[in-house]
TrEMBL record, chain A:
Pfam families: RskA_C. The chain crosses the membrane at residues 84-106. InterPro entries: Anti-sigma-K/W_factor, RskA_C. One of its GO terms (biological process) is regulation of translation. This is RNA polymerase subunit sigma-70. Keywords: Membrane, Transmembrane, Transmembrane helix. It comes from Flagellimonas sediminis. The keyword Coiled coil does not apply. Residues 88-242 form the Anti-sigma K factor RskA C-terminal domain. GO terms for molecular function: sigma factor antagonist activity.
Automatic annotation (TrEMBL), chain B:
Keywords: DNA-binding, Sigma factor, Transcription, Transcription regulation. It comes from Flagellimonas sediminis. Belongs to the sigma-70 factor family. ECF subfamily. InterPro entries: RNA_pol_sigma-70-like, RNA_pol_sigma-70_dom, RNA_pol_sigma70_ECF_CS, RNA_pol_sigma70_r2, RNA_pol_sigma70_r4, RNA_pol_sigma_r2, RNA_pol_sigma_r3/r4-like, WH-like_DNA-bd_sf. SUPFAM superfamilies: Sigma2 domain of RNA polymerase sigma factors, Sigma3 and sigma4 domains of RNA polymerase sigma factors. PROSITE patterns: SIGMA70_ECF. Signal peptide: none annotated. This is RNA polymerase sigma factor.
Length: 252, 188
């Protein structure tokens, strides 16, 4: 142990540490030795005392006015640090405002994105819908104009006596439409429902709304030798046609 | 310099009290100015160094640890390092620019020479120059022992021993000065 102290004291680490020339490691070592070994502490204190004595020998009169300059610049420095503190507060506030507005904009952006998705979905839906309608219109046009189209007048029977409809069937283009021109008044809890028998299966074509569907061409699923039916069903429509209530049929 | 004033200054520094700077200046400025001048060897530069050092001292006031160093040691380290940095930056600039002749005319302090310092100047002469050169090279010129050995053309071992003896001589002088002052005080 003592040998270590001797080696340390013989090196110039303590002197370097004294005048502020020691590296970080050397400073740590010096501080450790000073704290641990009284003889090192003693030497260090002696060195400090000697340094002061030695430095004092070189004391030099300071020029007049320097004190005032130094005092005022120190005061300014204090002000600067105060100002810095103020700037720091201002900067923190700015950061908070920025963070707040960022969050706000981020939220807004998210909302806009969601809205954008919604709108573009809607547009796509409308586009598809329009395409369908256009296609439908085109088919209607084809059906109505094509010379191969056959026109069937549908007349109702029984309760549906007054039911008048015209079916347009085009076997070449495999298109069929029906135009319900008159729908008789039915009791409130009854409605007309259209069906088509396609390849032996009955397909629900939906309820004929008394006013909305008047004079409108409604597409029928096409099949060779298909049969269309109109039945009277309870209000809201039925899952399967009531065969007894068939008021009209269209063979096409 | 009594330790009482030292402690007072230290406590003022810790509180960032303006009076600390004033007291520091009154008690240490001449020694620190001397240190700065010894390093930069130019009065204007030394004044800049002193000013910068005081600002640093003021800024670092709360980092001073009395258990690690005496107040003067701390002040000395800051001033010396500031002076060495100043010298380096000036030399760097001088290397780049056309060398301008540095005026050798020094300003004489207005206050004149303080008698205390004459005594110390005398003391300075008491130290054998061979020790003084080594002490100056190490303390003021920012040389490492190795550099001092090369610069002064003295073997490293000799540098080491002269540093130790030089410092011991200082202790002796310090001791005699103190006893002299004591005797003078007793006589008066």
């Amino acid at each position: 142990m003592k040998e270590k102290v001797k080696i340390f004291l013989e090196s110039d680490i303590l002197e370097k540490y004294l005048i502020g020339d020691a590296s970080k490691e050397e400073s740590q070592q010096a501080e450790r030795y000073i704290a641990m070994y009284p003889e090192v502490r003693e030497t260090y204190d002696e060195l400090q005392k000697n340094l002061e004595t030695f430095a004092k020998m070189y004391a030099k009169n300071t020029p007049e006015g320097l004190k005032e300059i130094i005092l005022s610049s120190a005061k300014k420095e204090k002000m600067v640090s105060k100002r810095f503190y103020r700037y720091a507060v201002a900067a923190s506030v700015a950061v908070l405002v920025f963070a707040g507005s960022s969050l706000f904009f981020w939220n807004q952006n998210k909302n806009l994105q969601e809205e954008n998705t919604l709108v573009s979905n809607k547009i796509k839906y409308l586009e598809d819908n329009m395409k369908d309608q256009l296609e439908d219109m085109r088919n209607q046009f084809i059906v109505l104009n094509n010379p191969a189209t056959k026109k069937y007048e549908v007349k109702g029977k029984r309760e549906g006596k007054e039911l008048k409809a015209i079916a347009y069937i085009n076997p070449v283009k495999k298109l069929s439409y029906i135009n319900v021109s008159n729908v008789p008044q039915l009791p409130e809890n009854k409605c007309f429902q259209m069906w088509a028998e396609v390849n032996g299966e009955l397909v629900n074509l939906g309820v004929i709304k008394q006013f909305d569907d008047k004079g409108k061409l409604l597409a029928l699923p096409y099949a060779d030798n298909a049969v269309g039916y109109i039945t009277i069903e309870p209000e809201g429509g039925n899952a399967a046609p009531s065969v007894d209530n068939i008021v009209a049929n269209i063979a096409y | 310099m009594s330790t009482l004033i030292e402690r007072h200054i230290v406590s003022l520094l810790a509180e960032k009290d303006d009076r600390a700077i004033s007291l520091l200046y009154e008690n240490y400025s001449e020694t620190l100015y001397g240190v700065a001048f010894k390093v930069v060897k130019d009065e204007d530069l030394a004044q800049d160094v002193l000013q910068e050092s005081f600002i640093k001292i003021w800024k670092k006031a709360d980092s001073y640890d009395a258990s690690k160093a005496k107040l003067f040691t701390w002040l000395f380290r800051i001033t010396r390092n500031t002076a060495i940095d100043k010298l380096r930056s000036v030399n760097n600039k001088a290397d780049k620019e056309v060398q301008i002749d540095v005026s050798n005319v020094y300003k004489v302090g207005v206050k004149g020479i303080v008698p205390d310092h004459i005594d110390i100047q005398d003391n300075l002469d008491k130290i054998d120059p061979k020790y003084r050169i080594v002490l100056e090279a190490l303390f003021f010129d920012g040389m490492t022992q190795q550099e001092a050995s090369e610069e002064l053309d003295i073997p490293l071992g000799t540098i080491k021993s002269r540093l130790k003896i030089g410092l011991r001589e200082l202790g002796k002088i310090y001791g005699t000065t103190m006893s002299l002052l004591l005797i003078l005080n007793l006589l008066s």
